[in-house]
Amino acid sequence: MSSRVLRKMGLQDDRDLPPVKDDASDDTETSSGGVNKKRHLNMYDLLNNGSMSESEVKEDDDHETTSSVNKKDENVSYDKENIRRKKKKKRKKSGKVLSSHTRSSEDNVEDEVERSVREVNKILGEVPDKGEDEDDEATSSRDMLHSTLFLKSILSVQHRNLNPNNELRKMFGRVVHQAELSKRKFRGRNHLKTTWLVTPKDNWPTVGKSGSTMKYLESKNGIMYFAFEHSPEYQQVQSQLYTAVSNMSSGNLVNIINNHPYHVDVLLQMTEWARLSEDLPVAAELTEQALYSLENSFHPMFSLSNGKCHIDYRLHENRALFLTLYRHLTFVGLRACYRTALEFCKLLLSLSPMDDPLAVVLCIDFYALRSSEYTWFIHFVNTFDPVRNLLQLPNIKFSYAVAKWQKGDVEAAHTLLQEALLMFPGVLIPLLEKCSIQADKRVNAHSFFTTYATETQPKSLSYLISMYVTRSYHVWKEVQLLPWLERNVQIVLDRVDAKDPIVKNMENLRATLYSAKPPLNIHRHLLLSDMSDTIAPPAEAVTNPILIMDPFPPPDGTSFYSRLSHGSMSRTAEENHSLFSTFFRSLNPVFQALSDER
Prior knowledge:
TCF25/Rqc1, Transcription factor 25, mainly alpha
């Protein structure tokens, strides 16, 4: 019997009937509705800790379904008595909420939908449903850092901010725009595929198959893990590269780059040679070409923007992406595109936020302050400090105070700056000297910022302070910051003279935190930065020749393949160690300093 006849007989109300559709469309809409509902609940479950979990929501839906079935007869009788009275009203309000019978039918289909969603979750890495027991357990700091929404809110990347031309257009406006239009007019259409990370040049060759591919490994806690693989042909070129570098054969290296223009490690080596020759435009373009090759190798599921795709630095094949990204953000920063450099810092940190193999936290504060991203930086420190102790680093401690000051939180900024000066007194004098400012008589006469700071400062801390002052002294040249710094320096000296117990506490904390040697990621950071000509890493950090395409490799590193030439390369490197050192000593003062320390 049709629905129209039932309505005429008064046996069924309009609100008890779903819209008239064919079976296929009905099934499709119900299924898609189930999936959308599932994702919607996942998002709000992560956004609001106080919200119901998915299991609780499902349990609540089941309860509604059961109650609606129990009240079926009662609802039908109620509808019979009131159908004539509400018939007009229902005509005016068509398209309202479906009845409990429709909800029950949807709930019956929801089990199949959930099974489908779980299968998709296994592939895409969505956050799995938590049971009641897991909801009651406290989440560890590492699990919190691996949370998909956590990473997305802090380290998500906006594609438009990865292009330095967009930032230059904001700074210089029509001039940059007209220059771009002129270039397009004369060069015609670009034959290379457009990517997010870099804009390919017209003189670049076609990519083709580089031999380096990315594969999907697994999904865990909502995080997708990927790794690069090298083809046998790529491995042979890699072996030729190591031989050419160990033999100091520039001719062989040029032949390799001519035959394999998109081999990433070869491009990285050529980038370093161009940089040491002070040919920065060529070095920057070679880095962009390497990054272009890497992006063309990305897996289809690998996303730059969502912050939940991780890569393990311990795997040798993965290191090229980290090194190339850091090189690129450094060159972008030299063009004063600080907002773009900050975006690449976020991207680089999102690949391995806990390990941070290139110590991005030592420079991310500089780019955040220079790009006036004070709110984001404060949020970043507040979120990361509980799991990574960021406020124990001198650069983060001082930059956090500056960000608070710039946002108008004056009282908090005063407290934070005084804590930074008490914790790291060795920063003040080098910072003032770098800013070409003469310290006042009281500061020079007081031992706290002079002899006391030098005597109680561990060597590893001196290493970090030198990097911070060398990189960030420009930040303190702002007119408003220097008087603010001077006032708080006087307050700190008053507290020292009053024998505030915090002075001794900070001294003990420094000795405890920085008693160990600096980790390898800090050495990599220095070597890849432009400060290696003024700051030399400790001699104990350099026990083997440094390869720029793999500086300070992790001791627990692994590889998908074993380099057949590795043993011979090591022997050749030992034989040519004096030649190797002499060559780099002539190009880079850091090697001269290391040799002197030996």
